Amino acid sequence: MPETTQEPIKVYEGLAGVVFTESELTFIDGEKGILTHLGIPIQDWAEKSTFEELSYALLHAKLPSSAELAAFDAALKANRGVPPALLEQIKNYPKTANPMQMLRTAVSYLGLLDPNSEDTGAENKYATAIRMIAQFSTVIAAICATVEGRDAVAPRADLTHAGNFLYMLSGTEPTLEQARLFDIALVLHADHGMNASTFTALATASTLSDLYSAVTSAIGALKGPLHGGANEAVMDMLDEIGTSDRAVAFVTDMMDRKEKIMGVGHRVYKFFDPRSRVLRDYAALVAGKQGKSHYYQILEQVEETVVARLSGKGIYPNVDFYSGVVYSDLGIKKEFFTPIFALARISGWTASVLEYTKANKLLRPLALYTGQSDQPLTPIAER
Questions:
Q1: Percentage of the chain surpassing pLDDT 70?
Q2: Based on CB atoms within 10 Å of each CB, which residue in 70, 85, 92, 114 is the most buried?
Q3: What backbone torsions phi and psi does residue 172 show, to the nearest 5 degrees?
């Protein structure tokens, strides 16, 4: 018989290029800089829609009617409150802890307090998703208050999701323009396909674990500086640069040393991240109106320098490049940027879990073994 040769196993490092499921929710073309939800460009979602409408669309994989959106919005408002026991626990968190550690612990505790948390049926998972989307704003605002030594501000039912969060964050009702700007930021971050945190949520959910566990897992993945923590790192870089006249020399020196520039480059996009283009325009608007954002002037110089040198390699600014300066101009401190990322992404996480578990398959990838073989177990006394 002829000898057969086995083709070498290909290792897809970081799972790059691996397709493991189907989804109706989000489409990304990284080469062309395209992002759509339900086939609708992200630019349209940002300019013509709201976080509430996009959250409904992701959870249901369809656009809502006026009546459906009104009912969904009412459900979110009705579920903004959190158990007093959770607020008491948050007060006792170490003030020096990372806010993402606090959020991770708080969401896990929400699961402990929910008597139906172990019900993984579709109906209960959907109800839990609505509660979590609503409660994330209250929990994160309470964490921010604790870190700053303030009492948590109770939610209001007469404000939008974005406006209510900004109100709870400061105790002062935001202007319509501020609320709308933050709403756009939430829309841009709500979902982004099979990113690290969404994949982590699905890996947990695929074991038929509960939604709280899946979201807690996602928060752990989002915490890392290569994912949700990047916008905070951008602000650290801007603080180090200091003034716009130092930006070109600073970033050129970084590129010469082949150091990573936070907020630049993306695992998927080889062209401008379309979300960054939207945020850039709003960052410019805020900087022009308020005249206080020296950060924006630095970012302009950094972007121009980076694009001139690295665009040929498919490296451009991503959404994190401008999101931090937008949050900063809204009065949000940089240590809270990543929890706010989670405030938006909770819609994508829960929607993806609901979609994937309809025809659930346990995620169980393989690893190519490269160690030794046929080795004896040497007695410890002889080692």
A1: 98
A2: 114
A3: -115, 130
